[in-house]
Sequence to fold (250 residues):
Amino acid sequence: MLELDILAFGSHPDDVEIGIGGTLIKHASQGYKCGIIDLTRGEAGSNGTPEMRREEALKAAEIMGMSVRDNLGLPDARLKVDEESLRAVIEVIRKYRPRVVLGPYWQDKHPDHLRASQLVREASYLSGLRRYPAAGEPYRPPLLCQYFLAVFAEPTFVVDISACYERKLAALSAHQSQFGLPRDIDWRTLVNNPLFIRMIQARDQYVGSMILALYGEGLYLEQKVVVEDLMVLKGLPQDGPAWKVYREKK
Ligand SMILES: [Zn+2]
Fold:
C-alpha cells in the first residue's frame, strides 16, 4: 500500500497547480511522496470535457513528479458537504495516510472551493474516528495546511518556490483547455484571459517578496505546530536567490 508524505486536495483539476503547484514540485523533488486528489472532474467548466481535463491533469501530475493523482468524481459546481462526499474524502485519506494534508483556504469566491475547504477539514478530523462508517483503517493526518485560490489572506508561512517556478508554469500550461488562448477554445472565462497566468505569477512574486525570494506560495495554518528544533525554522535569508540572480547578471 502506497503511503504519501503530502496529499493535496482541489475542487477542480487545475486548482492545486494554481495554489500550491510549486510547493508540491519542490517536495517531490526532495524525495517526498506527494499526491493530488481532484474532487470533481470539472464537468461544469465552460471549456474542455472531463476526459480532456483528466488527460491534462495527468500530464501536469507527471511534470510535477506526483506519485498519484486520483479523481473522486464528485459533482462540479454542486459540491456539497454531505455524508457521501465526506466518506469519499475520508476513505482516500485513510488509503494514503499522508503526514500533511493540503486543502483550499476557508474563504473563497467560488462555492466549490469553500465546500472543498470544509470537506477536507472535516474529513481530516473524522477520518481518525475509529467507528466512523467509512472503509479503511482510522487515521488522522497530523497537519492540515490551507492554500489560497480566489481570496488571498496573510499566510502563516511561505514556501520558497523560486527554483521550481518554470515547472509550475509548465504544469499550468498542461491545462490547455482552461488556460489556452481564447481563439483556441469555446468560451471566454476568467482563467483563459491571458492576464490570469500573469496574475498568478504576480501573486507568487508578491508572496516570494515576503521572504526575499523570487517566487513563493503561502500556506495558512489554523492549528498550532510542534517544533522540536528551532534550527529547522528559517527567517529571512541574508543571501537569498534574488542576490544570486543579481550576481549572475552582473
Ligand atoms: Zn477551482
Observations:
- The chain has a mean pLDDT of 93.
